[in-house]
Amino acid sequence: MGAGLRFGVLGHLEVTRDHSPIIITSCKQRIALATLLLRANQLVTKNELMDRIWESELPMDVLASLHTHMSRLRRSLGEGGGLITRRDLGYAVPASEETLDILRFRHLTTLAAGARGRGDAVREARLLREALGLWRGPALADVDSESLQRDVVPVLEREHTRTQERWFEAEIGLGGAAGVIADLETAVVAHPTYERFWAQLIRAHAQTGRPAEALETYAAARRTLSEELGVEPGSEIQQARRHVPLGDSRHLPPRDATPKAARPLDVPPQVGPAGGGVPMPAELPAGAGAFTGRAAELGRLRTHLTSGRPRPFVAIVGTGGVGKSALAVHAAHQIAGHFPDGQLYVDLHGATPGLRPLRPLDVLGRFLRSCGFAGPAIPGSVDEAAARFRSALYDRRVLVVLDNAHDADQVRPLIPGGLGCGVIVTCRRSLVPLAAAHQSRLGRLPAADAYLLLARLVGPARVDAEPQAAREVVLLCGGLPLRLCAVAARLAAHPAETFGATRDRLAMEQDRLTPATTVA
Question: How far is CA 48 from CA 19, 52, 389, 465, 469, in A?
């Protein structure tokens, strides 16, 4: 493979040269490249490529069109177009485990199987963890091919699920259940009817000395399987339930308690004064009615923020327009019930054009007023105000959402002192200086979710009238929800404008802005 070139299909289709991205915007060329990478080191016939690229609607001179697209794709990858080898019957891409993530993933899982066969569980767990770390999201998330999504992606997802299952089992067997509980909770959200994950999560809770959580997980599994499939939990879940230690009643939920997993996550807490006359703020803005996708990201956020760890703190980091604020607010509404003393929210204007970032002292004054302080009780210095804020929330369970932060220095004084409080921060830049923060980098919205978001914003009938043009609009928006919302607002304001006209306008704008590495 070409020097410095790396490819990824375990997530968005990714092409880099010496760590710099090569952006391929042509939908058909992305499909062609994905098809070749999935069959790396093998000949992919022209007929197979044509079927993948055009499905059932072949152009008049399909062979000439294929040659045109492949020629452009080869040039975009450099190496004089020689990386993709052309033969009489088709094309091929050479790759190795060092240059293509799916090959690396399969190599690592093969090594792990060998370690398991030798009884080396430590090495098996390490290799499986490394393999799973290669996944950046759903496979081929932004490749708009019905046949690839139908025929290939489910196979890749099954490989991922089996690898997760083996990793969880290896870690639990080694006594490392505490390290996989968060991932298991995400897995049962993504695969709610997969009984093995539920059983492993019950066992993991039991192993870490949390029988109440194990029983709550069993109740959630039973309810989910009943609602989704109309069946009772199978023998594996039942066996995991029977092995939950029940000897210490201090760890069990009260008789009338509703298990956490059974509580509706999207029901906000009761708004009103807290005990002792202390105000209970409920400042979250309304969530986006058309919020779409992000199931895995939401699962991870919920898991981290409701895991019971002291002062859970998540920083959502990503480029402008990728949907950080929408995700933060949506997640905050879902977990509000876990913070019964209220929710504080502020837009810090860290990247708002025309506005200076808010001063920490001004934000602290606002928060303290929300907590019942007034006038002289609010200090005039940042250090004193931050100390009073920490004291005010020391024994309370409040969720603090710091949206659109400028940097770590702006955020640091705003972190509450209570161990039961949670924090969500959104920021365009990394917040690594905040050591307590769990960094969650948000990628662009996958093409399928972006298409669904557009349909929800403008109405499915309008999208169904021009499905191909709508898909091309989605691709031109680059997986940025903010840009999709802007396009939808324009379409709503101009009912006569077609998706075809919108596509052409966006393409012209992109031609003016596209860097040299971008393929038109």
Answer: 31, 6, 63, 29, 24
Count Cβ atoms below 10 Å from residue 326 Cβ, excluding itself. 20
| Joined tokens for residue 454 | 């557009």
Four-point Cα dihedral 58, 60, 64, 67, nearest 10: -20
Q: In what order do the strands lie in the sheet with 14-17?
A: 5-8, 14-17, 20-21
Backbone angles phi, psi at 314, to 5 degrees: -120, 130
On the question of pLDDT at 518 being above 50, the answer is no
Burial of 390 (0-12, 13-18, 19+ CB in 10 A): middle
At 70, is the secondary structure helix, strand, or coil?
helix
User: Residue 191: pLDDT above 60?
Assistant: yes
Q: What is the C-alpha separation between 278 and 398, in angstroms, rounded? A: 12
Burial class (CB in 10 A: 0-12, 13-18, 19+), 235: exposed
**Residue-wise pLDDT tens digits, 215-244:** 999 999 998 888 888 889 999 999 999 989
Angstrom distance (rounded) from CA 188 to CA 168: 12
Q: Which helix (H) or strand (E) holds 433?
A: none
- Please count the residues of the chain: 520
Could you identify the residue written with the tokens 């072949």?
Answer: 58
Q: 360 or 375: whose pLDDT is higher?
A: 360
Question: Any residues with CB less than 8 A from the CB of 306 and at least 6 apart, and which?
Answer: 260, 312, 335, 338
Helix (H) or strand (E) holding 404: strand 399-405
Written as six digits, the tokens of 410 are 């702006």
* Residue 502: how many other CB atoms lie within 10 Å: 22
282 - beta bridge partners?
343
Question: Which alpha helices (DSSP H) does 210-271 contain, by range?
Answer: 211-229, 235-242
* Nearest partner of 477 among 515, 455, 444, judged by Cα: 444
Tokens standing for 225?
């399987």
In the DSSP assignment, the letter for residue 347 is E
> Which tokens is 50 given?
């044509």
pLDDT in tens, 389-425: 998 888 888 999 999 999 888 999 999 987 889 999 9
Burial of 182 (0-12, 13-18, 19+ CB in 10 A): middle
Three-state DSSP string of 116-129: HHCCCHHHHHHHHH
H/E element, 361? helix 360-370
